[in-house]
Write a structure and sequence with these properties.
alpha+beta, about 10% helix, 3 helices
């Protein structure tokens, strides 16, 4: 089984994410006490970015309001059996966050920033297509404006 990891820690706060599984039609968590649901395929990932109440706020660990963010972990399995594991960070005040300076992602790890509503989401992945596939499956973005909504920090 092939694994593709989407992992990073951003900002000065320590990420305490919720580990679960998005998909299976219900969006239910798997492994975090929220019950079943199983792992979905990319086609099942509409609304893949969790609602704000699915995040664990860790503002008390941040040094300033601009660094307040929360994180969630999720995974899905595609038709070929590849398991995608990713972390999504949501910043409460995206205008004040300089993620290109605070990111601890490996230099060769491609990741994108997504501005949706009043929050900034970060999705980390091994290549652009994987990140774009997840972003396209999310209801947080207009499907026709993926490239316009993603800022690539590394190539």
């Amino acid at each position: 089984m092939q694994r593709r990891n989407f992992i990073a820690a951003v900002g000065s706060a320590t990420v305490v994410g919720l580990t679960g599984c998005i998909g299976g039609g219900s969006g239910s968590g798997n492994g975090n006490g929220n019950g079943g649901g199983g792992c979905g395929t990319p086609d099942d990932l509409e609304g893949a970015l969790p609602d704000s109440d699915d995040y664990e706020q860790i503002g008390e660990a941040a040094t300033s309001e601009s660094e307040r963010f929360s994180s969630v972990s999720a995974s899905f399995e595609d038709a070929d059996g590849a398991v995608y594991i990713f972390n999504i960070n949501k910043f409460e005040n995206p205008d004040a966050v300089s993620t290109s300076e605070t990111s601890t992602a490996a230099e060769d790890e491609v990741h994108g920033e997504i501005v949706a509503d009043t929050h900034l989401y970060q999705i980390f992945g091994p290549d652009k297509e994987s990140v774009k596939e997840l972003a396209a499956a999310s209801s947080a973005l207009d499907s026709g404006c993926i490239d316009a909504n993603i800022e690539w920090i590394s190539e």
